[in-house]
Specification:
Shape: globular
Oligomer: single chain
Helix content: 10-25%
CATH class of the largest domain: Mainly Beta
Number of helices: 4
Strand content: 35-45%
CATH topology of the largest domain: outer membrane lipoprotein receptor (LolB), chain A
Radius of gyration: 20 Å
Structural class: mainly beta
CATH superfamily of the largest domain: Lipoprotein localisation LolA/LolB/LppX
Largest sheet: 13 strands, mixed
Length: 347
């Protein structure tokens, strides 16, 4: 879901492989997560269920809120502070990573700055990346086709001192995980999300503290550092058409491409990236030339951290890496069924 994709969304783990902005994308993808479902939960009519999900998305974008949330991935935990305000200029947001290396993400509408204090560096990207507590990627029109949307029965729950109602998103096939959401009964803001695999909860993200409304003030958006004089780098993404370039990449049922770009990653490597989503889950496919250096680790095997899976394989003179909060088999099928036909063979 919202990674940053990410969404968010491992929220943190897989980003180490792809530098600051890849990390930001994974955050977008990983931040909307899921958990076990109640077998007896009644399925809502598709229209009612989607209306609720759109209310959750609208609350994340239109409300003023500030709080601390914790992302748990296996035994690892990471906390972040978020401030979100809407004013006459649109959305303003600040996310501060409270654990690990200091990082902040300062967003104004579709422009996000990633602050790296140890390098006195600001990386700027002109691409919207919804994260927790946002939920839907793209329009989400196909969600009812691939997920059952179920309420968890009577009874309220409390997260961060606020009452919330449970909603389960149950996958209809094996190409995606399930999600359990707890949404604020007053505002519909997403307070907690869990990702569920066959054996139960494999990731979760939840507010620990939360304020909603006028007590959230603009001064809370100020970064922790004076960034005047820091080096500023624009993250340049160039639209591409991978199919026209010879790549035949299969899409799992329900997934559609939402982005195809060429971008610069770590060590000035130029990498092609395709992002697929079913409206909740997201998959990134990275393609880079096979260089003369060391081969990437973990080729032809899946690497799993919580709900985040990574699968890497070599195709001709390229390395192809698939990653996302989807079952490892989904990523393996994409990678192993991908074909590359050089342009000369098209002519």
């Amino acid at each position: 879901m919202s990674t940053q994709h990410g969404f968010t969304p491992g929220a943190q783990a897989a980003g180490r492989h792809f530098a600051c902005w890849s990390r930001y994308l994974v955050l977008a993808m990983a931040c909307v997560i899921s958990a076990p479902v109640l077998a007896a939960a009644p399925e809502q009519p598709a229209g009612d269920g989607m209306a609720l999900l759109h209310d959750v998305q609208s609350a994340a974008r239109k409300l003023d809120y500030a709080g601390v949330y914790t992302y748990q991935q296996g035994s690892a935990m990471q906390s972040s502070r978020i401030v979100h305000l809407v004013d006459g200029t649109g959305e303003r947001e600040r996310i501060e990573m409270l654990d690990g290396a200091p990082r902040e993400f300062i967003r104004h509408n579709d422009v996000t700055q990633c602050l790296l204090p140890e390098k006195k560096l600001v990386v700027v990207e002109h691409k919207r990346g919804d994260r927790f507590p946002a939920l839907i990627l793209g329009e989400g029109a196909r969600i009812p086709q691939f997920y059952d949307i179920r309420t968890a029965g009577p009874g309220l729950h409390r997260i961060a001192g606020r009452e919330c109602a449970m909603v389960d998103l149950v996958p209809r096939d094996m190409h995606r995980y399930g999600y359990r959401l707890c949404t604020d009964t007053e505002t519909h803001l997403l307070l907690k999300a869990q990702v569920i695999g066959p054996e139960g909860v494999i990731e979760q993200i939840s507010f620990n503290s939360l304020q909603i409304g006028p007590q959230v003030t603009p001064d809370q958006l100020n970064p922790a550092w004076n960034i005047q004089g820091w080096k500023k780098v624009e993250s340049v993404m160039q639209p591409i058409d991978l199919a026209r370039n010879g790549w035949r990449i299969p899409f799992p049922p329900g997934y559609e491409p939402v982005m195809q770009v060429s971008r610069t990653m770590k060590k000035d490597r130029r990498v092609s990236q395709l992002v697929l989503t079913d409206g909740l889950a997201a998959v990134s496919v990275f393609i880079e030339p096979h260089g003369a250096g060391k081969s990437p680790p973990y080729a032809n095997e899946a690497v799993t951290t919580g709900a985040m899976n990574i699968f890497r394989t070599r195709i001709g003179d390229h390395w192809l890496t698939t990653l996302g909060e989807v079952p490892a088999q989904t990523l393996r099928e994409i990678a192993e069924r991908t074909e590359y036909v050089p342009l000369a063979q098209h002519q």
